[in-house]
Design goal:
Elements (H helix, E strand, L loop, with lengths): L5 H12 L6 E5 L4 E2 L4 E2 H5 L3 E4 L18 H6 L3 E4 L12 H4 L4 E5 L10 H14 L5 E5 L40 H9 L5 H4 L2 E4 L7 E3 L4 E3 L25 H10 L19 E4 L4 H9 L1 H5 L2 E8 L11 E8 L7 H15 L18 H6 L2 H8 L5 H19 L7
Parallel strand pairs: 1-4, 1-6, 4-5, 6-7, 7-8
Antiparallel strand pairs: 2-3, 8-9, 9-10, 11-13, 12-13
Length: 416
């Protein structure tokens, strides 16, 4: 495979960054595989601790499955594995006693461009522990592309900033639904939420683009290095799927909107080969299928909803025939995933008496509805839940919020 990744660049140059005998903690999963050395990062770095995030190292566990039992990892590779996704909210935070014994946290995680995706939110919680406990721990961030960003000079963003009451594991305060950042850029944004953290900690970023130098963003240092491959190809698709229901680039494109289905009693397609693209429920009638499929608003938003039947093999309505749709993007230029799904949910609420919001505990939270945590903004919930806000008013509001976000966040862009 003729390409160089941020992991490969770091492995080649790690002696320039990490002092000898450094105590290392690793935040990663199966995406952290070197195609140059044909090994996982932990096999090459030999960390003191590997932090297990949601879904497990090999993305073998479904959503909201506790990683309390980790003996299989311990037997497989003899280092210390620590779960950051247990049975209660406190499990999301690494313990002070663990972090204070480490010199470096190395982060190699694939984000998918939407704030609900929890891997980088786990990093936010680690930064919070380092900040609040006044720990002197340094960071190396191995950057990976945002699969939703084709052109770094024109960032594709959607939504509005998450309001403080709705902060949770599926959304950090202030972040847009589709944020437009690469992994390292979002972490850099997070770091700036903790005053003086950059003054206390060394923070190295290894870009995925070999034409951009490795840099210490805390001190402004940079250095370039020899790239030992003739090709400098950058992969924008997932060479390794980052989580069990994120199998492809197409999934990431619809995810910003379609993740809202988790806050409803609809199946979001878990247990099918097209999660988030395929969705529905047993109670959706043929009449509703037809009305939604034929509604001209979706063509205007660049999508076709193809009606179908499906049987999920896991999650909601397991082994039950569901009526629903597959979402097909026919115009990426017109498609606004959040807007399209919000309009869909509004119409289903009007047409289908059985349609309802999910009312159970969601990612350790129950003060608000799951849909409220996902939307993170009362204006958006009001649009779906009532007739007081028009589509034009919603579109105008989102455009305003998106423009403000682009101005606010431009300073964090590594790639311009």
């Amino acid at each position: 495979m003729k390409f160089i990744s941020s992991l490969d660049r770091f492995l080649i140059n790690k002696k320039k960054i990490l002092p000898k005998n450094s105590k290392i903690g690793l935040f990663t999963n199966q995406v952290s595989f070197s195609f140059l050395y044909k090994k996982y990062s932990f096999e090459l770095l030999e960390p003191d601790i590997i932090f297990l995030l949601e879904h497990g190292f090999f993305s073998e566990f479904q959503d909201q499955v506790s990683l309390k039992e980790i003996q299989t990892y311990q037997k497989w590779y003899c280092t210390k594995w620590i779960s950051l996704y247990g049975e209660e909210e406190s499990s999301l935070y690494p313990k002070k006693e663990v972090i204070q014994n480490l010199n470096w946290l190395i982060i190699d995680l694939q984000d998918v461009g939407s704030r609900y995706y929890t891997f980088l939110n786990s990093v936010f919680y680690a930064l919070e522990v380092v900040y609040k406990e006044h720990l002197e721990c340094n960071f190396v961030i191995l950057d990976r592309p945002n699969p939703l960003v084709k052109n770094e000079s024109r960032r594709n963003v959607e939504g509005s900033p998450l309001k403080k009451p709705y902060q949770s594991f599926v959304g950090i305060e202030g972040v847009l639904h589709r944020h437009g950042f690469t992994s390292a850029e979002l972490i850099h944004y997070f770091i700036d939420q903790f005053k003086n953290l950059k003054n206390r900690c060394k923070i190295w970023v290894v870009p995925f683009d070999p034409n951009i130098p490795i840099q210490e963003i805390s001190k402004g240092k940079k250095f370039s290095e020899q790239i030992p491959l003739s090709s400098k190809k950058i992969l924008l698709d997932f060479e390794i799927y980052p989580s069990p229901n994120m199998p492809s680039l197409k999934t990431a494109k619809v995810y910003t909107g379609q993740c809202l289905l988790e806050g409803t009693n609809l199946s979001e397609g878990r247990g099918t080969t097209k999660p988030f693209e395929i969705f529905g429920a047993p109670f959706i009638t043929e009449s509703i299928l037809e009305q939604i499929s034929e509604d001209p608003v979706f063509s205007k938003l660049g999508v076709i909803l193809r009606k179908l039947k499906f049987i999920p093999t896991s999650s909601k309505y397991k082994n039950t025939i569901c009526n629903g749709w597959q979402l097909h993007i026919i115009s990426e230029k017109k498609y606004h995933s959040l807007l399209a799904t919000m309009i869909l949910l509004k119409k289903l609420k009007q047409l289908c008496p059985e349609f309802d919001w999910y009312k159970g505990v969601y990612e350790f939270k129950s003060q608000f509805l799951a849909i409220e945590y996902l939307l993170g903004d009362d204006f958006l919930f009001q649009f779906i839940n009532s007739n007081s806000i028009s589509i034009d008013e919603l579109f105008s509001y989102l455009n305003q919020q998106q423009s403000k976000w682009k101005v606010l966040t431009k300073k964090y862009y590594l790639y311009k």
